[in-house]
Amino acid sequence: MRKILSGIKTSDMHGFMRFPFSFVTVLLLFITVNHSQYAADSPQSSAAAPIVTTDSASQVTYNSATLRGTVNANGLSTTAWFQYRIVDGPSKTTVSPQTVIGASDTEVSFNIIALLPGTTYYYRLVAENDAGTVYGDEVSFTTADMKTSHTTDITSPAGSININNGDAFTNSSNVTLGLSAADNIGVTGYYFSTSAIPPSPHTAGWTSATPAVNYKKDVSYTLSGDDGKNTVYVWFKDVSGNISDAASDSIIVDTTPPTITIANPTSGSTYKTTSKTINIGGSASDSTSEINNVVWITSKGKDEKESKTISWNISNADLLEGDNVITIKATDSLGNTGTATITITYAAGNNPPTVITGHATGISTDFATLTGTVNAEGLSTTAWFQYGTSSESYSHMSSIVNIDSSSVDTPIDNHISGLLTGTTYYYRVAARNSAGAAYGAEMSFNTKPPKGKISGYVMESVSGKPIESARIRLKGTKARKKSFKILFSDADGFFEFNELDADTYDIFAIKTGLKSARQVVEMPEGEENIVEIKLGSIQGEELKRDLVEEKKGTETSHPTPNKSEETKPEAQNPKQI
User: Fold this and answer.
1) Do 316 and 380 belong together in one domain?
2) How does residue 567 score in pLDDT terms, banded at 50, 70 and 90?
3) Do residues 81 and 128 share a domain?
């Protein structure tokens, strides 16, 4: 700009100044051109025009071919197509250009038809994006000579067909036929039929195919037959008119749901009962495929059951008062489902109660809680428990429980006491209404065994005076759950350990200033033992050993009774140490 302005003479400037508008216009035009030139000289973005490679053609027949190549879009959305021509002929362009994206080589291909037989064609791949248009190298191919191919090709195509990838059954008439065929000069069509009679090359109904040496295609097809076995035949032909042998596949069509029959308690659609439970049975069948399962459910949402048998039975189905709509569903192996319903009306009335004996809880040495369930069947009902120490012989009866006249299961419980320790009791729930009595199944429980007790006195070995506040430690040694207790003797030197399980107990007594003593007591279940412990005087090292022994507590090893210490427990003859 400076050079241009410096090159303008002063006289010229005076001329421009006489036409200021013209000067401004020229100046703006210069700035625009200069900016455009600067933009053109500026570095471009990293995006670039596509890279294309024209590959050799494939599946060339007398009137068709597949053009192939690769495109690298270089990160921009790119459109690709082929141009092809004959010598001195007009250039043609493939229809339906392909879109390529990404930054890696992508294969593209186009089928072209309506070519001239025995003719050489020249073609190239073209690709275009925002960075420019690129043309691949020109390559050629020659179509087959139609006369030569027709006169020399006598080989028929070989093909196959599958229905729904070879499935044996279907529950729809709409299927997919998988076609596959091969021919040395190219498959050009196929023909479907439900008859095994072969067509001629001129029979109406042939479907044209893009010529291919190896032909594959999935075709949607509607079966024309009814439920049962349906067979489809297919023939393929090539460019010479040779027709393949028939290929076929069959499939069993089953669109009919299973048939369900209710035979028990009635074959009718309704049934009335005064029973709380009912058995329902029948059969299920399918004319084509197998029964997979039978499911039933009540309108009350109470029960559901599955069975894979054709003959089905529902045992002791619970009913609620009123109408119970029971639906039976049978499903075959293809998912077809058939249903049947029956309405069973349950009227609670002149029926005895229904009872279920429950478990005993809260069991101790002389106490337990008995539980059960009673359904009054709509009548005012009383319930109780029978129990005793002999099976099916009940010497005791619990208190009576009154139940309202409802038709629902009512839980009850009853507390019984005064039981014998370590004893097996047998019991059952009983209930009665105006229609009769009902008794539950017999059940049993065991009361806990009695607890033992060890008591005695601590006294001086010489004077025989009672020792107060002697520390006495009791520790079980053999039972899985080992007792450990500590207490002090009273003013009379008396001590007592209660609630003891059967075990071998180590009793250790100590009093400051006196010599400690130990005794091992074997105590059977529920027995009482009385012992007498005498402590002598102690001095020096013996005192220290006793203090260490006492401090060890639970760490003290358990001695084996020797002849001088071991005496059999006798409740009336206290032991002495």
Assistant:
1) no
2) very low
3) yes
Rounded to an integer, what distance in angstroms lies between the CA atom of residue 407 and that of residue 346?
10
Q: By C-alpha distance, which of 164, 165, 159 is closest to 189?
A: 159
Amino acid at position 233, single letter = Y
Domain hosting 22: range is: 2-36
Each residue's pLDDT tens digit, 353-392: 999 999 999 999 899 999 999 998 888 999 999 999 999 9
CA distance 194 to 206: 14
What the block records as the tokens of 265 is: 């308690």
Closest by alpha carbon to 115, among 64, 54, 47?
64
Q: What is the DSSP string of 67-85?
A: EEEEEE-TTS-EEEEEEEE
CB 439 within 8 A of CB 392: no
Q: How far is CA 276 from the centre of its chain?
A: 36
- Whole-model pTM: value is 0.40
In angstroms, the CA 354 to CA 512 distance is 70
Cα 92 to Cα 47: distance, rounded to the nearest angstrom: 30
Same domain, 281 and 232: no
**Helical (H) or strand (E) element with 368:** strand 367-375
Task: Determine if residue 102 is left, alpha or beta; phi over 0 gives left, psi from -120 to 50 gives alpha, anything else beta.
Answer: left
Mean pLDDT of 82-106: 90
Answer whether residue 122 is part of any domain: yes
24 residue type, one letter: V
Residues 6 or more apart from 448 whose CB is under 8 A from it?
363, 364, 365, 421, 422
**pLDDT band, very low/low/confident/very high, at 349 (cuts 50, 70, 90):** low
Q: H-helix or E-strand containing 13?
A: helix 10-18
The arithmetic mean of pLDDT across residues 105-113, rounded, is 92
Specify whether the CB–CB gap between 163 and 173 falls below 8 A. Answer: no
Q: What is the token pair recorded at 76?
A: 């921009």
Closest among 231, 222, 249, 246 to 161, alpha carbons compared: 249
Q: Cα(2)–Cα(211) distance, rounded to whole angstroms?
A: 70
Provide the CATH number for the domain around residue 422: 2.60.40.10
- Contact predicate 520/505, CB 8 Å: yes
Q: Is 570 among the domain residues?
A: no
CA atoms within 13 A on the CB side of 134: 21
Q: Is the dihedral angle over the CA atoms 165, 171, 175, 179 positive or is it negative? A: positive
Tokens representing residue 235 in the block: 């023939």
The C-alpha atoms of residue 267 and residue 341 are separated, in whole angstroms, by 10
For residue 515, how far is the Cα from the chain centroid?
A: 72
Burial class (CB in 10 A: 0-12, 13-18, 19+), 431: buried
d(CA 34, CA 421): 117
**Residues near 118 by beta carbon (within 8 Å), at least 6 away in sequence:** 62, 142, 143, 144, 145, 146, 148
Q: Which residue has the tokens 């691949």?
A: 136
Residues 209 and 198: their CA atoms lie apart, in Å, by 19
